[in-house]
Amino acid sequence: MRRFTRCLLLTLFVALMLQPLPAFAQESGPIYIVQPGDTLSGIARRFGISQEALVQANGILDPSRLFPGDALLLPGFESIEGELTLRTLNFGESIESLSAYYGVDVLDLARLNRIVRIDGAYAGQAVIVPVGVAGVESGEGESPELVTEGDTSLERSAYAGISPWEQRQSDEISTRYWMLPGRIQFDVKGRGTIALPAFLSDLAIGPEPLTQGKTAVIETADIEGHTVSGSLNEYDLRFFPDEGDRLVALQGIHALQEPGLMTLAVVVRSAETNQIVYGYDQRVLLDAGDYGFRVLNGVPSETVDPAFTQPEETLIQELLSPKTETRLWDDAFELPSRYYVEEFISLFGTRRNYNNGALLYYHTGLDFYGQNVPIYAPADGIVVFADALTVRGNATYIDHGWGVFSGYLHQSEMYVQAGDRVERGQVIGQVGATGRVTGPHLHWEIWVGGVPVEPLDWVAAIIP
């Protein structure tokens, strides 16, 4: 009898362990599908809820019994419905627009993603959203239309072939919110994405991720009858027409720019009235560059004295800030010296200490070995400066158009002067040891949008 009782208890225990998860104790909320490697405590931490609340909401008898594919109801998010999925925040999107599209309160969506600052979301960020509710699937589809001046909910609904009440109920947004000019327009017959409107749908910035000391390339379509402008942090962007009806803006990112989030802003205006048709700003992620450190002793004291260096920096900054209309290069740049060994003397971006002073500098270019050897123009351009300076020594700067300049420092001789047109491969000077040097070498710079950038990027590929 005792043996029979033990067998019965064992059978009941096995049957209990093999039964599916019990029905949810909570009636509404988002569904999370358990992934390989998930634990109940890890899921609770991820969504900022207690493990006990998760167990109670799902009627879980054994918290250790969790398998990939199990569906868990998340407590504390009763206003959110649907199955949770991960998607990328695209250009033109924000936590507010995701909230509008998926019909979720913006604060609930932020809490679901553990986002402290709603305006801190950035393009490329992974965001958790609910799908499968009210016709919302994956957020993919055609670009929505843009609300323009004078649009009304009645006109928009008539155009979409639905009633204003049906449209308003679908969007779950007040009319005053989504009828403002410049807002994205949704409708139940094809909600599409919530990214940029069609005329800016191919806006792109690269290379991704953005990195200290690199050249950012911002591209979009050439919009007939409109102009496009913008900014990247404090730098104004100027868009130039390129091949295939494209607009391109180039901007250098300072090698000492703090890693983290930068703000890309884009404004579209009517070419006829100059009125803003559409404008938005987007956070983009900036990574740190992999730059080293070097101490240099024995340089002339006046070349690190701010009384001499600051006026020179101001002169060069003003000289290299203009963005001329004509692009004069059509290929990757050549190296300006044919005389170099397996490595360069010093690479771009290296943090520097001169004469054991404070660390206030970084290397703005690329150094080549040699003395009294030819310097070649790496691409076509127009000379904008050729003169002697305290820090840079005998220096030449060439304008290649679109805000792109190249510089050649510490020369022993200069063969060109301001205003000269030079061609790719033309000899423009000789390598020397003038200015702030510890030995003869050529210091070569590339500036883009008033900022020195990694020169080797311009040799490795055609930009843009």
Describe the overall structure.
- With 464 residues, this protein is of the alpha+beta class.
- Helix content is 19%, strand content 31%.
- It has ten helices and 27 strands.
- It has helices at 2-18, 40-46, 51-58, 95-102, 106-112, 153-160, 164-171, 175-178, 306-319, 455-460, and strands at 30-33, 71-73, 82-88, 126-131, 145-146, 184-185, 204-206, 210-211, 215-221, 226-232, 235-238, 240-242, 246-252, 260-270, 276-287, 293-296, 351-354, 361-362, 366-368, 374-376, 381-389, 393-401, 404-414, 421-422, 427-431, 442-448, 451-453.
- Strands 19, 20, 21, 22, 23, 24, 25, 26 and 27 form a nine-stranded antiparallel beta sheet that branches.
- β22 (393-401) and β23 form a beta hairpin.
Concise description?
This protein is of the alpha+beta class and about 475 residues long. It has ten helices and 27 strands. The longest helix has 17 residues, at about 1-20.
Structural class: alpha+beta
- Span of the ends, CA to CA: 85 Å
Radius of gyration: 30 Å
Mean pLDDT: 82
Query: Which stretches of 5+ consecutive residues score pLDDT under 50?
Result: 8-26, 137-144, 167-193
Q: What portion of residues is helical?
A: 10-25%
Strand content: 25-35%
Outline, from the CA principal axes? elongated
Count of helical stretches: 10
Largest sheet: 9 strands, antiparallel
Number of strands: 27
